[in-house]
Amino acid sequence: MQAFQTNSFSAKVESALNLLLSPTTKHRSERIILTLAIASYLIHLILIFCSNIGWIPSGSKFLSNPISAIYTPFSFILVYEVYLLIFYLPQSTSYYIGKQYEIITLIVIRRIFKDLGDLELVNDWFQNENDLRFTIDAVTSLLLFTLIYLFYHKILRKGYVHGEGKEIGIQQGGQFILLKKVIALLLVPILLALALFSFAGWFQLGIEKGFADANLLAYMNNIFFDEFFTILIIVDVLILLASFYYSDRFHTIIRNSGFVLSTILIKVSFSVTGILNNLLILGSVLFGLLILFIHQLFEKAQIGKVNSGEG
Question: CA-CA distances (angstroms) from residue 15 to 177, 230, 260?
Fold first, then answer.
């Protein structure tokens, strides 16, 4: 009877998953988000044009500098990355963490486009705050791109690709994956509500300030992604506790613990500015990469013991 109820619950989860997080839904969501990104970019350019000819009064670079318009479509691309993060959560913990790194990298790149609007191109480049911030963000994005490449390279490296079921046993692995599917399904409405609430709050703030605040674009990160990574920390801790329940493999538990710490570092980065923000972001991705690397060394050592007949 209990097995029947479990199978029935699993079937309902799979049905909901096919509706919200299936490859077909992923493809449709991608087309919708890209369409919205293009439309938002064109609308933003039109608003800038209207502002420049005096139809819309505005003293903000948000509606005066055409480069700022690039910021808007990137915001929609980030929304799609959030969806991909939820999409990969039931499939692979490592890919799920990798998507977190992609999101924070895109946030830095989006910030570069904001920095472009503030460039002054003076001779004392490193003495100018705006030019120095652009340089630091550009170097940070390049380093992050390299670290993410190495992270995925370690995941896809031949001989180290393990499904969750193989890591903690087929039966228990199936239960662990079912738990992650439930978490992913719960995240969809939670993050959708958070996104709508955050955008409404940001838009209201823009109206109150007349979209004239130079830092209005930066507020968008703190309004949504700060809370977003808080939710991810809760999810990561839940996955960590579940891994204790389903597995006693030391290196897997340490890997999941390290991923939690990596997410916390990203979360903390939103509370600081300047070069410390960049260092925390770089440190979080580097820490996750090193955790994955050491985890794979453990995997390789265990495989070697099995092949040699030890243990």
Answer: 15, 28, 30
Q: Which long-range contacts (CB under 8 A, 24 or more apart) does 32-40 make?
A: 33/76, 33/77, 33/79, 33/80, 33/83, 34/76, 34/80, 36/76, 37/72, 37/73, 37/74, 37/76, 37/77, 38/73, 40/72, 40/73, 40/75, 40/76
Among 255, 286, 278, 299, smallest CA distance to 92 is for 255
Contact 279, 285 (CB under 8 A): no
Could you tell me the pTM of the whole model?
0.81
Tokens in use for 285?
């991705």
The secondary element (H helix, E strand) that includes residue 227 is helix 226-246
Distance of alpha carbon 161 from alpha carbon 156, whole angstroms: 6
pLDDT in tens, 135-187: 899 999 999 999 999 998 887 764 444 444 444 444 445 777 888 888 888 88
Q: Is 168 exposed, middle or buried (0-12, 13-18, 19+ CB in 10 A)?
A: buried
Q: 232: which 2 tokens?
A: 């991810």
Q: Beta-carbon neighbour count of residue 254 at 10 Å?
A: 14
User: CB within 8 A of 52, min separation 6: which ones?
Assistant: 64
Per DSSP, the residues of 244-285 read HHH---HHHHHHHHHHHHHHHHHHHHTT--THHHHHHHHHHH
What is the distance between the alpha carbons of residues 293 and 159, in angstroms, rounded to a whole number? Answer: 13
| CA end-to-end distance (rounded Å), the chain | 39
Contacts 24+ apart (CB under 8 A), 18-22: 20/185, 20/188, 21/86, 21/87, 21/90, 21/184, 21/185, 21/188
Distance CA 44, CA 62 (A): 9
At 52-73, the pLDDT tens digits run 777 766 656 666 677 777 777 8
Q: Is 166 exposed, middle or buried (0-12, 13-18, 19+ CB in 10 A)?
A: exposed
